[in-house]
Specification:
The complex is a heterodimer of chains A (418) and B (186).
Chain A: H1 2-6, H2 8-16, H3 19-28, E1 31-33, H4 42-61, H5 71-80, H6 85-112, H7 121-143, H8 148-159, H9 168-176, H10 183-214, E2 230-232, H11 233-258, H12 288-296, H13 300-320, H14 332-353, H15 359-385, H16 396-401, H17 408-417
Antiparallel strand pairs in A: 1-2
Helix pairs in contact in A: 4-6, 4-10, 4-11, 5-6, 6-7, 6-11, 7-8, 7-10, 7-13, 12-13, 12-14, 12-15, 13-15, 14-15
Chain B: H1 2-45, H2 51-54, E1 59-62, E2 71-76, E3 79-85, H3 88-95, H4 108-111, E4 117-121, E5 144-148, E6 153-156, E7 161-163, E8 175-177, E9 182-185
Antiparallel strand pairs in B: 1-9, 2-3, 3-4, 5-6, 6-7, 8-9
The chains are: A mainly alpha (418), B alpha+beta (186).
Chain lengths: 418, 186
Amino acid sequence: MDKFLQIPIVQWIEYRLPIFSFMNESIVVYPTPRNLNYWWNFGSLAGIALSLQIVTGIVLAFHYTPQADLAFASVEHIMRDVNYGWLLRYAHANGGSMFFTVVFIHLFRGMYYGSYKAPREILWMLGVVILLMMMATAFMGYVLPWGQMSYWGATVITNMFTAFPLVGDWLTTLLWGGFVVDNPTLNRFFSLHYLMPFMIVGVVVVHLWALHVHKSNNPLGIDMKGPQDSLPFHPYYTIKDMFGLGVFLLVFAWLIFFAPNLLGEADNYIPANPLVTPPHIVPEWYFLPFYAILRAIPDKLLGVVGMFGATLILFALPWLDTCKVRSARFRPFFKMAFWLFVVDVFVLGWVGKNPPEGMFILIGRIASIYYFAHFLVILPLLGKFEPTRPLPESIGTPVLKGGGEMPSGAAAAKMEKS
Amino acid sequence: MADSTSVAKRSDAHGEDETRRDFLYLATGAMTAVGAAAIAWPLIENMNPSADVLALSSIEFDLSPVEVGQSVTVAWRGKPVFVRHRTAEEIAEANAVDVSSLRDPQSDADRAEKPKWLIQVGICTHLGCIPLGQKNGEPKGDFNGWFCPCHGSHYDTSGRIRVGPAPRNLEVPDYEYLTDSLIKIG
């Protein structure tokens, strides 16, 4: 890097726009906790998934027509006529699922290791903003093929806004641009579906900015106390992220090439028909837990509030969990509560997938109550009463005392810094 | 003392590692390049004409209703194709020109398989406007053929560029006579 900065043209640019030293400080010598495990791969994977969605999406928009009479046919045109259109569409549709998978794991990782705690509350809340924007984007994107599920999914979701007192009907008509979901709705959803990913990129930049202020949390949940606790981001984490990317792409390629419709609904290959509702409406898998909460509550407004609340409550998580210890490794009871919560979310997803009848209603209600109880009862109580295990004095101590020596790169980075 | 020997040993080990590391580095780079190219290919190839566009790339046209001295414009691949049933004078005029004096030398026989039928793409070779001269009363330029109003290119009765900025003669598309009066363009 030092040699590179001696090149005259680099110096010329650097003097006017210090981009090279900025890059150097944020992705090369950037100090990263030396003990990060593979759960820390999912942040960079989320960024890659977002980029892939933007690239495939822009290309699909070359061929797609956002008009109610032509939209379905234009998607079939992409599948049958456009060169590699099938690949691009399958990559975009399954890319959404990959994106949500990666982001959910990223989110659960943050919960397990207490990454939302001081001083990373804003970092966490920006992540929740990204999640909400992703949900809106994914929902509007699912409407674009204008199949039966697109149409009726759009109808059900937009009808939720009628639940709000006083402004509900006005708001819904405003969303639709008519009296039902129709061509004006499709047009605006296309426009917003194209816009929002770029807004997400903007929030991601701020998310990374916040991350780089206090740096990554780590599996021990204790702060880095000096260079002996960190490794330079490059090459240690660039190569680890690349390896993770390889695994990600293997799964992604398997979905695209061997099971492209595994996560989709067959009904969406029937053109939208405003006069016939399909017998069983299900959202995409990533919305199922929230959908289950909506259906669990036998009241229109409260159901909608519960569904939105399930995501919005994440904003309050840094203050609901009052325990000062971050990582679940030192919180035996929180660890159990965390895994119960994960199971609960899967149960909600399973209930959401099934029709709302018989035992699913009861299970759905219990799981919904538990979902909120985790945040509103269990976490505050644990913060008060949980006996935590003693924390190690530093990240480096257990490693270095074990007789291992410091990697040469870390030593070099240390010298470079000082 | 002990320290310096251990340092020396380490750097030796590092030296033996060098070729192995180079190999891994190059193999990773090569694999990345292949992967990037494989991803880039469909992202570019999708912009080429799709199957439904290619399916429209040839058309048939029946010449028999076109009278002597009449011009007809046919759409082919979205472009206008000028079909002209030329008069004897026009054919004679086209043959009277000294081919070597032309900007884009081409004999009339090279441009019209059967002299009375001139079939050409009606797009000026300058910057893509459609020349005038198909309809009665439109200016036909100084050489009684076609005249492009955008930048003033004059084409003769064989569709050859004579005066103006266009570099080449009007393009003659691939076509064949399926019968005496039926042609297939493209």
